[in-house]
Design brief:
Elements lengths: L2 H11 L5 H10 L1 H21 L4 E9 L1 E3 L9 H4 E3 L5 H11 L2 H11 L1 H5 L9 H15 E5 L5 E8 L5 H20 L1 H35 L4 H38 L14 H26 L7 H23 L2 H5 L14 H77 L3 E5 L5 E2 L5 H26 L6 H5 L6 E6 L20 E3 L6 E3 L23 H17 L7 E7 L6 H13 L5 E6 L10 E2 L2 E2 L3 H5 L8 E3 L2 E4 L2 H24 L2 E7 L9 H5 L4 E7 L5 H13 L4 E8 L12
Parallel strand pairs: 8-19, 11-17, 11-18, 12-16, 12-17, 18-19
Antiparallel strand pairs: 1-5, 1-6, 1-7, 2-3, 4-5, 9-10, 13-14, 15-16
Helix pairs in contact: 3-16, 6-8, 6-9, 9-10, 10-15, 11-15, 12-13, 18-19
Length: 759
C-alpha cells in the first residue's frame, strides 16, 4: 500500500461515524443492548403490576358555533355568530386550549376542594397555596381532550385514582369550562361577571376574616356585647358599694355592742330582765323585726331583677336606715337592750341572760359580717378590673365591628350586582346555546392501560440506556484495536493481513498427548517427523493441534494469504537478495505472533522455491523444545552449516532453531553479533529466515534487530491490544527505521453479510 492510499484510509478513519460503524457497535454489543432492554421491559412489568389503578370518566361536548361579543347589543347576535364547520381547526384548537389551561385546572381545584382531589386531610401547617397548585397539576395530568375525527365534538376524558370522585371532578371541569367559555367569548358581560365573581369571593373571604377577628377580640375581652357588659358592670358595682355600706354599718353597730358588753361588770353573772319594762322590750323587738322584713323585701326586689338604683329599692334602703337609727336611739336610751342580744318578736322574756353568751354571739355575728364584707370587696375589685379592661378593649372592638359591618354591606352589594350580571349572562347563554353536552360524564371505569407514559419511558429508557452503554463503551471506554480499518485509519499503519477468530479443526486421528513437562510435539503429515507447537499464548501444549502446513489446519488459507502478500511485497519493492529476513513479533503477549511465525514459515516452505529457516527467540515465555526423530533440535550455527543443517529439518524445506536454553543464547547473542552473522545467512542458501521474536518492549531485543529486517510483521490481537500500546510499539520500531506492517489477529465480524461486508 502506498502513502496516498494510507492517507486516504487515515482520512476515512477519522471522518466521523459511518453507517457500518453503527452496525458494528449495535451487533458487537447486542447482548448488552438486549440486557438493558430487558431491564426496561422488566420495569414496564413492575409499573404495570405495582402502579395504582386509575379510573376514568368520559364526556363529549358538541361545539355548534362560537359567539365573539365586542360590546354590541344583543340584537346583533346573529352577525356575531361564527359557525364551526369541519375545517374550523383554529376554533376547536382554541376550545381545547381553554379546557386544558392551567387557569381552568386551578379553578376546578379551588371549587371542588384541593384536599379532596389530592386525597389528603388538611392540617394547620399546610400551605394552602401549594396544595391548590398541586391539585391543579393533578387535574391537568389526568385530563385528556381530543377531537373526534374531523367533527366538532370534543371528547373529554378524566382519570383519577378515586372511583367516587372521578365523575364528579369531570362534571366540575365541564361546568367551569362553560363559565370560562362565556367569560372568554362573552364580551363585556363575561368580563364583568368574571370580575364580580372574583370581587365577591374576595369580599366573602374578607368578611369571614373580619368576623373571626371580632370574635377573637371579644373572646379575649370576655364579652359578647359591650353595652350589656358595661350596664352589668355598673349595676354590680353600685349594688356592691351599697352592700358594703350596709355591712360596714352593721359591723360598726355590733362592734359597739361588743365593746359595751365587755365593758360591763364581768362579776355580774346575770341581768335582770324584769327591771326593763316589757313595753320597751316589745318595742325594741318590733324595730328588729321591721329591719329584718325591710331587708327581706329589698333582697326580693333585687332577686327579681330590679336594679339597685330603682326608686323602690332606694326607698327600702332608706326605710332600713331609719329603722336602724330608731333601734340605735333605743339602745342609747336603754343600753341594757343591746346586752340582751334580742333577735325579734318573742325574744327577751327570759329571766336571765348570760353575759358570756351575749359576747360570744356578738363575736360570731361580727365574723360573719367581716366575711361578707371581704367577699363583696373582692367582687367589687374584680368587676372594677374587668370594667377597666373593657374600657381599654372597647375602641378596638368597636373598630372591628365597624369594619365587619362595612365588609358585610359591600359583600351584599356585590352579590346583588353579581346576580344581575348572572341573569344577563344566562340570557346571553340562552341566545348563544353554542355548546351542547352530547354525553354526560360516564360512570367510573377502570383504565385498561396503566400509566402508559411511565411504561413507555421505562421501555424506551432501557433501549436508550443499552445504546448509550454500547456507544460509550465502544468510543470512550474500550481503547482496544478491533477492526482492520482502525489500523490504517486511526493508527496510520500498513495493514498486511486480517486473520479472523476461527474454531480449530481437529485431526482425524486421536491427538497425541505427552506428560506435563515433556516436549509438546505433533506429527508431520509427510514423514511422521515432529514439529514444535508454538502459538505465542502458552509455553507448551498438552493437546496436539493439526500441523500448520496441513490443509485441514483452521488458518491454513490465511497463512497462504500472508505468504502471498509477503512475496508480492518483495516483488513490488524489487527485493531479490537472499535470504530475506522477516521478523514476526507481537504488540503484546498472547497476540498469536508465534503461531503466525510458524504458519508463515510452513507456508513459505511449501512453495518449493527455496529453504526456510525459523528461528524461535521466545525465551521469556519458555518456548517448546523441538524434537526431530526423537532428538533435540540443533543450534543456530548448526542450521547455518551445510554439513549439519539436516539436524534442523522438520519438514521439506523447513528448518527450525528453537529451545529455551538456545533461545536465551540467541536472544542475548544476536543483537551483538548480528552484523557478523549476515554473511553466514547469505551463504546458508536459505531463501527466507523467519525470526519469531518476543513481544515489543522498551528493554527487549525486538526493536534492536528490527532495522536489519526486510519486513517487520507486528501481530495485534483484536479486542485485547490497546491502541496506545500499538502506537508505542510502532514508535519504537520507527526509531529503528524498520519496515513495519500489521497482522490483525483474531478479528470478529459482527455485522451480517447482507448488511455490510468488510474486505
Amino acid at each position: 500500500m502506498n502513502d496516498k492510499q494510507r492517507t486516504q484510509n487515515l482520512h476515512y478513519g477519522g471522518g466521523g461515524i459511518s453507517l457500518p460503524d453503527i452496525y458494528y457497535v449495535l451487533f458487537r454489543h447486542k447482548w448488552a443492548i438486549l440486557f438493558f432492554t430487558m431491564l426496561g421491559f422488566i420495569g414496564v412489568g413492575i409499573i404495570h403490576y405495582t402502579a395504582p389503578t386509575d379510573y376514568v370518566s368520559e364526556a363529549q361536548l358538541f361545539i355548534k358555533f362560537v359567539r365573539e361579543s365586542g360590546g354590541a347589543s344583543v340584537n346583533t347576535v346573529d352577525s356575531q355568530l361564527k359557525p364551526v364547520d369541519a375545517n374550523g381547526e383554529s376554533i376547536i384548537a382554541n376550545e381545547m386550549a381553554i379546557l386544558t389551561s392551567y387557569d381552568l385546572a386551578l379553578q376546578v381545584a379551588t371549587n371542588f376542594g384541593p384536599n379532596r382531589i389530592l386525597g389528603r386531610k388538611s392540617t394547620s401547617n399546610d400551605n394552602q397555596n401549594q396544595i391548590a397548585i398541586a391539585a391543579a397539576n393533578q387535574v391537568r395530568e389526568g385530563l385528556t381532550v381530543d377531537r373526534l375525527g374531523k367533527s366538532t365534538v370534543l371528547r373529554i376524558i378524566f382519570a383519577h385514582s378515586d372511583p367516587e370522585l372521578v365523575q364528579k371532578i369531570l362534571t366540575e371541569i365541564i361546568d367551569d369550562y362553560e363559565k370560562k367559555h362565556l367569560r372568554v367569548h362573552g364580551g363585556d358581560s363575561g368580563v364583568i361577571y368574571a370580575a364580580n365573581v372574583e370581587e365577591t369571593a374576595g369580599l366573602r373571604a374578607e368578611w369571614i376574616q373580619a368576623e373571626d377577628d371580632l370574635r377573637k377580640a371579644k373572646a379575649d375581652a370576655h364579652v359578647t356585647d359591650i353595652g350589656e357588659s358595661k350596664r352589668y358592670y355598673e349595676l354590680t358595682l353600685f349594688k356592691d358599694s351599697q352592700d358594703l355600706k350596709v355591712a360596714k354599718a352593721e359591723l360598726a353597730d355590733h362592734k359597739e355592742a361588743l365593746a359595751t358588753l365587755k365593758g360591763m361588770n364581768t362579776n355580774s353573772s346575770t341581768t335582770n330582765v324584769a327591771e326593763i319594762p316589757q313595753e320597751t322590750i316589745d318595742q325594741y323587738n318590733d324595730t328588729i323585726d321591721l329591719i329584718s322584713s325591710l331587708k327581706k323585701a329589698y333582697d326580693k326586689m333585687r332577686d327579681d331583677g330590679m336594679p339597685a338604683h330603682n326608686k323602690l329599692c332606694l326607698e327600702k334602703l332608706d326605710q332600713v336606715a331609719k329603722a336602724k337609727e330608731a333601734k340605735k336611739k333605743m339602745e342609747q336610751d336603754e343600753p341594757r337592750l343591746a346586752k340582751l342580744n334580742l333577735t325579734g318578736k318573742g325574744s327577751g322574756k327570759e329571766a336571765n341572760v348570760s353575759l358570756a353568751v351575749q359576747i360570744s354571739d356578738e363575736e360570731t355575728e361580727i365574723g360573719k359580717i367581716e366575711k361578707k364584707i371581704k367577699y363583696t370587696q373582692a367582687e367589687f375589685d374584680e368587676i372594677t378590673a374587668a370594667s377597666a379592661a373593657l374600657d381599654v378593649a372597647e375602641a378596638h372592638i368597636l373598630d372591628l365591628e365597624f369594619k365587619e359591618k362595612q365588609v358585610q354591606e359591600n359583600y351584599t352589594s356585590f352579590m346583588a350586582k353579581l346576580n344581575e350580571t348572572k341573569i344577563e349572562l344566562d340570557r346571553m347563554a340562552l341566545l348563544n346555546a353554542n355548546i351542547a353536552t352530547t354525553q354526560q360524564p360516564s360512570p367510573p371505569a377502570m383504565e385498561r392501560t396503566k400509566n402508559p407514559k411511565r411504561m413507555a419511558m421505562s421501555a424506551l429508557g432501557g433501549i436508550l440506556l443499552g445504546l448509550a452503554w454500547a456507544f460509550l463503551s465502544e468510543f470512550y471506554l474500550d481503547h482496544t484495536v478491533k477492526r482492520p480499518k482502525e489500523i490504517e485509519g486511526d493508527l496510520g499503519m500498513r495493514l498486511f493481513l486480517s486473520i479472523p477468530r476461527v474454531k480449530r479443526k481437529k485431526p482425524n486421528q486421536k491427538a497425541l498427548r505427552e506428560p506435563k513437562g515433556e516436549a509438546a510435539v505433533q506429527p508431520d503429515a509427510a514423514n511422521g517427523t515432529l514439529l514444535p507447537v508454538v502459538n505465542g499464548t502458552t509455553g507448551g501444549m498438552d493437546e496436539l493441534d493439526v500441523a500448520p502446513w496441513d490443509p485441514n489446519h483452521s488458518l491454513y488459507e490465511y497463512y497462504e494469504a500472508l505468504r502471498d502478500r509477503l512475496i508480492s511485497y518483495f516483488d513490488v519493492n524489487n527485493l531479490t537478495h537472499k535470504p530475506k529476513l522477516v521478523a514476526v513479533t507481537g504488540a503484546s503477549k498472547g497476540s498469536g505472533a508465534s503461531s503466525t511465525a510458524v504458519g508463515l514459515a510452513a507456508s513459505l516452505s511449501q512453495t518449493g522455491e527455496g529453504k526456510v529457516l525459523l528461528i524461535d527467540m521466545n525465551y521469556e515465555n519458555g518456548g517448546a523444545q523441538s524434537f526431530y526423530q526423537g532428538k533435540p533440535g540443533c543450534e543456530l550455527d548448526a542450521a547455518l552449516t551445510d554439513s549439519t543443517r539436516e539436524t534442523a529439518l522438520v519438514q521439506d524445506n523447513l528448518y527450525v532453531v528453537s529451545g529455551p536454553a538456545n533461545g536465551d543464547k540467541l536472544a542475548r547473542m544476536l543483537p551483538k553479533k548480528f552484523a557478523t552473522l549476515v554473511p553466514k545467512f547469505e551463504a546458508s542458501k536459505y531463501d527466507y529466515i523467519i525470526f519469531d521474536m518476543p513481544p515489543i518492549s522498551r528493554t527487549g531485543v525486538t526493536q534492536r534487530l528490527a532495522g536489519f529486517m526486510d519486513m517487520m510483521l507486528v501481530v495485534v490481537e483484536a479486542e485485547k491490544t490497546s491502541r496506545d500500546v500499538v502506537r508505542q510499539a510502532n514508535s519504537l520500531l520507527m526509531e529503528s527505521k524498520a519496515k513495519v506492517s500489521v497482522v490483525l489477529n483474531k478479528t470478529r465480524n459482527y455485522i451480517p453479510a447482507r448488511l455490510h461486508q468488510e474486505f
